[in-house]
Amino acid sequence: MSEIVSRTDRVEGQRRIAVLVMDRPDKSMNVVDEALLGDLRRQIDAVLADEAVDAFVLASGKDGSFGAGADIGWLPELAASDNAEDFLAGVHELMARIARGTTPMVTAINGSAFGGAFELALAGHAIVAVPGAQVGLPEVGLSLLPGGGGTQMLRRFVPLDRALDMLTSGKPVAVEDAAGLIARVVPADGLVDAAVELAASLVGTDLVDEPSVEEGDAALVESTREALVGSRRGLSTAAATILDVVAAGVVDGFDAGLAAERAGFLSLLRSAESRAALHLFSAQDDVKRRSRGGGAPVGRLGVVGGGQMGAGIASTAVSRDLDAIVRDVAEDSLGRARAYRDKVLSRTAPAKGTDPRVDRWADTTTWEGFDQVDAVVEAVFELPEIKDEVLRDLCGAVADDTLIASNTSAIPIASLAASVTHPERFLGMHFFSPVERMPLVELIPHAGTAVETTQRAAALGRRLGKVPVVVGDAPGFMTSRVYARWLAEGIRLLRDGVDVTTIDSAARAVGFPVGPLLATDEATLNLVVQASITQVAEPVMADRLDVAGVRKALETLMAGGVEGRRQGRGFYTYEDGQRVGANPEVLGILGVSPVEVDPTVVGERLLLAFATECWRCDADGTICHPDDGDVAAVLGIGFPRLLGGPFHWADEVGAAEIVARCDALGEAFEPGPELRRLATEGGRLADLPRRPAPFADRG
């Protein structure tokens, strides 16, 4: 009996079928690494050498999961290995031997099968799965490509166009939608039996060993490339490499495709882009791991406020099978909230019939029903006096042990806690708009928040599909503070005479999804003044930044009719809500002359304005660890994903280089004490010790 892969033999009719079961004893799921592949190779060698065995089945011993991709923590070791090429060649040799062999292999998928685990299935000759199982090759999301033969093996099961979509999108596929890929969908209690029966039926039949090639396949690969270039998603480096590798197999054959896959995989794995993606994946996974469990679960959620944020929170709750009750003082607001709910649910609604999730929604203009909720998120206007009044009324409507959270982007949680009875059950939960799509939630405990409260809020965030990051109760917390600094830099550049188009184009060129001026238009200039400047920049940044000058510039622009998209005229002009072009009057209203400037300098200022504020958040204890800062910066406020977060980026560039670049830009770009120390002593931000969560010692 081997440690990871065990074998039993079954008799089906006149056939002897070996059943190999993968079960990592040290992990919650089967991850693919040297240990599993080595054990599997030994077992398959024994099966193929056993003349009494007619076919074999590959199954999983993990409940509800067949397997995942490669162990993320092991990939850097593989990247650094001098034997990486030989290792991958050995994996491909095993896969090809299975595919080209005369001994049929059927895979029994009892749940999710992604990445390397799914590639194992693709090396076989048929796949049987349970209802609700999902399969996929998500490597492109990690700036990688499948390295276990998947770029070539997938085409043995599905047409080329479908294979290209799966490979370049990385999206999971439900087995019910995987005709051709999945031979049978059977109940879990009969899965292995069905796989054994199918394996026996394949003995002596013509087995598909290599993918077929049709006339026009090479052209299809190139048309897919062109379509991606013109798409919103764009053509990433990983997707482009995947297309190159598939094309090699189409044009030069199966073995050439595998050779191209090895080269492409290692090239991507050793790239800065992939290191950034793998870092973000690991950091996000660690945040999720630390937010498991804690206190009584939330089954019924109350939401106060039927505006876009409140409707988004409640819609997200019912979409994930939580009961939600929404309270607003105006019936028309509740009507708009219901319309918002229907829009959210329509994206995943059943093809026929009514959506049962609608029945999980209730709304009211009173406090009726709030005595039955487990948790409440207050999501009313961002004005302290309104929130204070609502929180006082709310406390009279819910039980004493109900979790209470305020959705706010900047208002100090400690000040709001004064309006809450039993303030130990109160904290901030800062969601991002649109809630149903944005993956981050900031958790902000105050000095009196019980540890169990933070744990319950983290579990609620996970239940809502969010990544919860705990931050300190400082002005703007982390994300609003950093965002305020970035928006302010956009205004500072305008005051220096840089035009609107150059500023926002430079932001996109360095990887931001939008520029600071377009972002300001979307929020409206008035809101930016109220929130980003008054609530955050003035109390936090005035000692190192001309915040008064930024405020004056924004007020001058508003007085000149520059207000934002909703008003039809901002840094851009709009017709019927659609952006027409840059507003040519902006610099004139400010009274500054346009200057010619290198766009790379503009991009550098925007990148370092954002990053230096993140580094200061770590230095003053607003975040617990640089990894948390990377997750929050990328998932919440748009730091370039390809750079892996501001802390990872600094480690990649090197502290000494970062400090020199900051110093060249002046005191507004002070990088902070840790980077200055690392610039002198060496080391990485990633290796700094993790601090306890804010107020973690309070109970």
Automatic annotation (TrEMBL):
Pathway: Lipid metabolism; butanoate metabolism; Lipid metabolism; fatty acid beta-oxidation
A GO biological-process term: fatty acid beta-oxidation
Endpoints of the signal sequence: none
Reaction equations catalysed: a (3S)-3-hydroxyacyl-CoA + NAD(+) = a 3-oxoacyl-CoA + NADH + H(+)
This protein's UniProt keywords: Fatty acid metabolism, Lipid degradation, Lipid metabolism, Lyase, Multifunctional enzyme, NAD, Oxidoreductase
Molecular-function annotations in GO: enoyl-CoA hydratase activity; long-chain (3S)-3-hydroxyacyl-CoA dehydrogenase (NAD+) activity; NAD+ binding
Membrane-spanning intervals of the chain: none
Segments forming domain 3-hydroxyacyl-CoA dehydrogenase C-terminal: 476-574
PANTHER family attached to this UniProt entry: TRIFUNCTIONAL ENZYME SUBUNIT ALPHA (PTHR43612), TRIFUNCTIONAL ENZYME SUBUNIT ALPHA, MITOCHONDRIAL (PTHR43612:SF3)
Family named by the database record: Belongs to the 3-hydroxyacyl-CoA dehydrogenase family.
Official protein name in the record: Enoyl-CoA hydratase
Species per Swiss-Prot/TrEMBL record: Euzebya pacifica
Lineage: Bacteria, Bacillati, Actinomycetota, Nitriliruptoria, Euzebyales
